[in-house]
Design brief:
This protein is an alpha+beta fold and 135 residues long. The chain has two helices and eight strands. Strands 1, 2, 3, 4, 5, 6, 7 and 8 form an eight-stranded antiparallel sheet that branches. Strand 3 and strand 4 form a beta hairpin. It is globular.
Length: 135
């Protein structure tokens, strides 16, 4: 199993507010690097997009526990099965957010995708912080 964790960011908003934002997959487009994404589609519960120089990725909401966890999973549009969990830990009005990606990848695929995916998840964390401000 390959696990990739994003950096942790602190956002001065309640976890419930961030959880609600993440429950609408239409919002996910704002978190992606616009210059590297094309063919965006969303129906609110799932989305798909093409990553420049790579594959089309499909993501769908897959449960979780409000307000601390949003679970997503790959759809059939993705090149391999994976899960993406967004963790939201709130303390004293500040929510710490990070993502955890899990997939069964062969060593060759892991070598190719580990760094780009890590960078993507760090970008998503930074965008969540930028969108939701500091207070």
């Amino acid at each position: 199993m390959t696990t990739i964790e994003s950096k942790k960011v602190e956002i001065r908003k309640p976890a419930a507010e961030l959880h609600a934002f993440l429950q609408d997959m239409n919002n996910f487009e704002q978190l992606l690097p616009a210059s590297r994404i094309s063919e965006w589609q969303s129906d609110g519960k799932s989305c798909s997009f093409k990553v420049q120089g790579a594959a089309t990725i499909g993501l769908a909401l897959d449960g979780g526990e409000a307000p601390g966890l949003v679970k997503m999973k790959a759809t059939e549009r993705s090149p391999f099965p994976f899960t993406l969990d967004v963790h939201l830990a709130e303390a004293k009005g500040v929510t710490t957010l990070w993502q955890q990606f899990n997939a069964d990848l062969n060593p060759f695929i892991k070598m190719m995708v580990e760094k780009p995916l890590g960078n993507l998840f760090d970008h998503i964390a930074d965008r969540m912080k930028a969108i939701h401000g500091q207070g």
